[in-house]
Amino acid sequence: MRIRRLCIAVFAVLVCLFPPVQQAAADTAVRMESGLLAKGDILWLGQIELDDGSGSYNGPIPWQVLDPTHAYDGTSERATLLSRYGLALIPYGATVDGWATTAIRRAMQTMADDRSIFSQGEYDLILPMTTSDAFALGDDRLYPLTEADVSASGYLTTRDERMTAAIMKHTEAVTYWLRYYVNPLTGVVNFAGDAQRLFVIGVQYRMRPAASIEIAGIALYASPGGKLGGDAGLAANGALPAGEYVLTLFDTARTFSAFYGEAPAALAAARAAGGGATVTSAGGKVSVSYSGATRGPNEYVSAMITGGDPSTDVLFYGRLRYIGDEGDESGTVVVNVPAGLKPGGAYVLRLFSEQYNGSGDGPSRLTDYISSFSDIRLAVTSARTVPGTGDGQTPLIWLGLAAISAAGLLWVALRVRRAGQ
């Protein structure tokens, strides 16, 4: 009985010396680097409501990447996209010019200009394209592919690549229009994935628009459900699964600025100078003043911590303060510096105004918007020395104390046992 009680005491001491490791916040998944995209990746851009008798859909639009580095007109540092699914049913409305005055062209430009489908920021991301081919584009933002685009030397080289379904069903293959008309034939890709020329005046098929985007306009890429950094603070940035991304775009109308230390005469000057600098310990706190945050639904002051290269190396992300009440546009946020940062490391604390539209909840996949970054240099001088920090590390001194205490209690137990024999 005495031995059992002493063993229980040993366990209790060990529990006290080794408090349960706090669970770190679930990893977020956010990236900034250019060159991230690959052919076939899915980007979510815009949202649409459709109901044409064969089904209905109301939600964000997935686009597959046809070319991750070039626009449709061949210019570099851009990307060419194609709607993943067939969208609205519409007649081609063919005329002798083959494209310029067709009904499908008017429908696609109406779609591009509809601010309920594309926000102003998304519209600005989509580039007007001009070509000089047989069915030339004239500053079109959305357009069908041509027969050459779906050939063996084009974007879609196989039947499987050319096939698609209606966005409201996702299971039944559909026929969609190509940018082609030579009286009396019009070009389509049929439900079997073959390019054909058909006599289809007055017939309705799906439109499947292509678009080119400005890669530099994308501030952040996140996996669906990947922006898990919450209001409580920063979450560690985990691996970003390849292949599907929810976008965060720069909103140039935002005038957010943040600084550390005494407020300078001009916040713009503070941003240009790096927003001040702070020295702290891992696990410590940094108080940052800000001004010009956008107020409204889904609006936050958010932050990231990056490593040596602020343009790519995202280590932590989180939303620090909800900006919903009058007067919240200026104020102070306290940043809890993660305990896992290494002493002597050079880090950058990036703060920004963010409209967070729920891309972290998975199903919504809506675009988020942020201001330009206000950067504060962050120098970590010492590690946190309290056990149970959540980073899985316990200081060696506590290990030593635990070992000594356990050995002492076991020694007492053995003496008591011998005395009882």
Question: How would you sum up this structure, described in words?
Answer:
This protein is α+β, with helices and mostly antiparallel strands and 421 residues long. It folds into 2 domains: 42-216, no CATH class; 232-382, Immunoglobulin-like. It has 6 helices and 24 strands. Strands 1, 2, 3, 4, 12, 13, 14, 15, 17, 19, 20, 22, 23 and 24 form a 14-stranded mixed sheet that branches. Strands 8-9-10 form a 3-stranded antiparallel sheet, with no helix packed on it. A 3-stranded antiparallel sheet has the order 16-18-21. A hairpin with a 2-residue loop joins β8 and β9. The longest helix is centred in the C-terminal third of the chain and has 25 residues, at 396-420. The chain is elongated. The model is unreliable at 1-26, 270-274 and 385-414 (pLDDT under 50).
Which features characterize this protein?
3-stranded antiparallel sheet, 421 residues, disordered N terminus, Immunoglobulin-like, 16% helix, 6 helices, alpha+beta, 32% strand, single chain, 14-stranded mixed sheet, 24 strands
Mean pLDDT over all positions: 81
The total beta strand count reads 24
Distance between the termini: 14 Å
Instruction: Tell me the β content.
Output: 25-35%
Structural class: alpha+beta
Shape: elongated
Put simply, the count of helices is 6
When the domains are counted, the total is 2
What are the secondary-structure elements, in order, as H or E? Answer: HEEEEEHHEEHEEEEEEEEEHEEEEEEEEH
Give the helix proportion (percent range).
Answer: 10-25%
Largest sheet: 14 strands, mixed
